[in-house]
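quick one, two chains, predict together pls
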Amino acid sequence: MAKYLLLKHYRGAPPAVNDVPMDRWTPEEISAHMQYMQDFADRLEESGEFVDGQALAPEGTFVRYDGEGRPPVTDGPFAETKDLIAGWMVIDVDSYERAVELAGELSAAPGAGGEPIHEWLEVRPFLTAPPTITE
Amino acid sequence: MDELLLRSLTPGVLGILVRRGADFAAAEDAVQDALVEAVRTWPSDPPRDPKGWMVTVAWRRFLDATRTDTARRRREALLDEEPAPGPAPAVDDTLQLYFLCAHPSLTQASAVALTLRAVGGLTTRQIARAYLVPEATMAQRISRAKRTVSDVRLDRPGDVATVLRVLYLVFNEGYSGDVDLAAEAIRLTRRLAAAVDHPEAAGLLALMLLHHARRAARTAPDGSLVPLAEQDRGSWDTASIAEGVRILQAALARDRLGELQAQAAIAALHADAPTAEETDWVQIVEWYDELVRLTDSPIVRLNRAVAVGEADGPRAGLAALADLDDSLPRHGAVAAYLHERDGDPATAARLYAEAALKAPNLAERDHLTRRAAGLNARGGG
């Protein structure tokens, strides 16, 4: 078993096929999309492959250490930052092929016109614990 | 209360319920209920006959669950039958459970989870924590696995090799959460090796014991990996090594060599060396040759290249490496090491840094990054 992160981008991924911003969808299309995501997560739980799923607000703040005894510096959001994460799902599956298959399903979530979005999702393997037997 | 004793009763009790006519899935649930009940009541009220107590409580739970089931009428004939009392052939029951839980119709992850629960007596929560998934996910994985094997009959012996693969996986994934999976794998393999006449089962047990013996030495206090050559051999568990060697020798004497015995033989040669310099690399290469013959695995050939590098010098190791596909996992790390030994720190540092990017786990990545950094610092690059 291996864990993979399915990463959804607000920005930074190549454009989707059905690339209509969500605020141009009908309310029913938005509901259908949400339902699809929920059903997908439920199916993964039933198949014993679900680990976690979270959505992120589009706007965040950059924070950095500013020296001993000083409060951290905050800045941003920066418009020039290319990559903007929208959310993720963590899955625990038997193979890389299965992870790709599931990412493909998730990318088929319906969008404008009830048609699949075909959005690009990023599949990233987790680093694991080291195996006990090495040589 | 002795949790291990309690858990060691699990497969025997489960076997008795199944033999009395309970279906596997319901019996397994009933035994889990009885385990929970035992944890609750035994500390204040320990039974005189723990196994008898477990059978009684589990059977009652099974009957309760069955009575509330919609299929009650269909099963009433079964309930009217008085269960046969008396001691059970625990070993046979246990063995059949191993086969069932490692059934080839299951995915490896399902087989691992089911084995840990039904044979190991771990709770779903413990297994979920060990594998870092939510309890609900693990519960589904286990109940799907039980459905998958629900039609498998328990009356024929299965394939020991599939069971060994599952136990190898449990051991090799190390441990997290509150369960020591490596120790659990050893416990379950020990029991299997006692129940089945199979040199590879002994080989796996020996392999586990020999690796487990080095566990304390494998990681530094900061969690970083310590390579075999740099380990404090004084902290190896000599009792575990002695047991592993003894079991391995008995298995090898039967002259039915298999992959696991050969792996254990290599581990034994490492364990046998008082210092890294005294390692018998020539013999280790010979065992790798056996392994190549048995498995024809490219990973084995890769490990063999390291051994050849030690036995015949880094140039020979690099020559052995040249025949292998460089997309193999850890190929870059091996190449880096051999170039370092060959006195080419610049190439080694570059290869270590590249290998770090491809490392499948954090400890290995950090280790490779440190090697690259160390060489770069010395080279002033």
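Chain B is about 70% helix and 0% strand.
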